[in-house]
Amino acid sequence: MKWNKQFARYLQLSLLLTSNVFVFATAAEQITKQKNGSALNSPSQYVNPFIGTANFGATHPGAQYPQALVSVAPFNVAFEGKSANGDKLNPFEKDAAWNSRGYIFENKLLTGFSHVNLSGVGCPDLGVLLLMPTTGALELDAEKYGSTYQAEQASPGYYRTVLTKYQTTAEVTSTLRSGRSRFTFPAGQANILLNLGLGLTNENGGSLQINSATEVQGSRTIGTFCYHSEQARPVYFVARFNKPAQRFGGFKKMPLYKNVEAEWMPHNNNYKAYPFHRQLLSGDDIGAYFSFDNKADEVIEVELGVSWVSIDNARQNLDAEQYQTAQRLSFDELRQRAVNAWDSLLSRIDIDASSTEKTLFYTALYHSLIHPSIISDINGDYPLMGEFAADKPLFGNNKNQPRYSVFSLWDSNRNVHPLLSLVYPELQSAMVQTMVAMSQEQGWLPKWELVGIETKVMVGDPASVVIADTYLRGIRDFDVQTAYQAMKKAALTATNNPLRPENADYLQLGYVPVDDEGPYDGSVSTSLEYYLADAAIGRLAAALGHAEDAKLFQQKSLNYQKLFDTSTGMLRPKKRNGDWHSPFNPDGGRNFEPTAGYIEGTAWNYRFYVPHDVPGLIKLLGEDEFVRQLDLTFDSGKFDMANEPDITYPFLYNYLGQTNQSSARVQQLIKQHYHNTPAGLPGNDDTGTLSSWLVFSMLGLYPTDPGNPTYTLFEPAVKSARISLNPAYYPGKTLEIQQNAASNSSYSWQEKALKTPFISHQQLVQGGVLRL
User: Fold this and answer.
1) Overall pTM surpassing 0.85 (yes/no)
2) Domain annotation for the chain: domains and CATH numbers
3) Which pLDDT does position 275 carry in this prediction?
């Protein structure tokens, strides 16, 4: 899912030119890694968290623990109407800056470190609970206390920079549910501000209570992701300082009144400070300050725990993860734990490749392991899925199974979840168990879920695809019968269906008509997503022994043929009466402009989007015409690497045996769009989807048909790779992939030639050697 991609088109060249001067992994940083105990040959050393922080990649370089509830990230989003340096923006620049993420590589005014963040999403939300170190007289207006910065460093679980305005070094690290900040100040007055007003969410209310000179607790409201009217939800926190402040209190942004003198407003701004202790401060745009009288190079650390359930749980999370047998862990010990956690996961795949290739590969794998992320507390509590109501419980508990969130399924069903199923089946199983539990709590499977809220973003029924695909790959330790009934409910309920709101027409006509759609409804896109989901449900039905259901859903999935227009060779919007929508512009929808029939794309981007029946589409077009149109899509610039509907297209040549062409297209796209620079992603990472594309593409295999456990094969970008298989799920020990030096068009499994460039998931997880 993307947001304002037209800006990416406009800025892409300048961003690439700017980012080409960026250098990652300096010698000094490598020495730091070694001093902190990280082996120089560990996979985490190759991760460059700055990749994707430009070109609308929407990633952040902050301290990130794998699939964590908390990440501590620098926040430098431009103030509304102004650039990062304070210059007035024109409307184009204003929208580009304000609708982007909390960190943009080109921005240079830092206003704090946020503790609850999203990575690679298309709309602003979260980015809250900001800590900011300052020096000198107390200033509470973020637009004034913001600072430029230099000497940035980032690696898994760690971020460091120097705030030039304050000559203060800021370092941050994180655990699963908490963060630790380490600030090194010059001599004089030092201040640490906790700003609850700043953030990316459209909500800005909060509350706080200062318990002592070393502790503050409270909450911050988030909500309305993508400007949808879903309910808001509070996130709770407890923050502690390693030494007491000499002065502390709360502050609130006050409305401006004419001819009224405020009690006390530092520097004549409109923030009012309240020195207090154990009083509750609530409202919009509030915060707390802690001031210290420091010697030169004095270090102050802040630990901050988070919970989506309660302040008490935030405190439990903090105590459990920042302390060991009542002994406070050091900053470096916490950082090392994050490094170890990343190495444990990243080392599941060991590749033989150049240093640059390793950086691209392991950074992509790193991004693929951020979301979905944990939202359950150390005691097992989590927010239940669904709308709030007086007669419904708000929270559940499962001490034996983590609860996950951030299911951007329109994106991630395509490759993130198949990647997790192959390499991390235990994680994929836990995520599917979460999805099934959510269906019981709210009555429907999730579509685009955020901290227990269904945001209703995007189209289709992607959870059905993910669950069927997971089961068919052999991961079966979840309640598949409950899941199957939820999938059937979504597929067959005609009205009041939040997963398939267009289902009444779809069930009657076999497609979603264009007649009633608004500018973003996307009748063709929606129909194609329903067909894909029906195909997945049909395959699962067959595996579960439901023959009649299997036949029904397979037939429904082939109704894409009703949208196939022989005169254009396109999948075209059709009216309720069966007439084609006219006039028809295949290029309509470029740069994410609204157009009849398509969501986030053009007719070109969707013309081959029938992944469950590519052979059937080839038959409709004819083999020669299929290849001609496929070539034309790439050669005329109609292909969009930055969005999901067409990202399987470079692999479609394999369906006609043109494996060299698939390999050439894949290698061309890697070279063109993926770089070791901040602009090194094609666009919005979509919770790891563009990164997962790169992981699979560098390995030489890709799941072109989610819901069908088969991979298509092509030339890998690495010399060899060894995937350690989880013995709790798969019979094999290691899957080894090797470049076949003899011929780049020869494929073999266990030294036996493959007749086609396809291989099943079940074969690969037996373990063995795949030569490509």
Assistant:
1) yes
2) 66-75+110-345 (2.70.98.10), 348-771 (1.20.1610.10)
3) 86
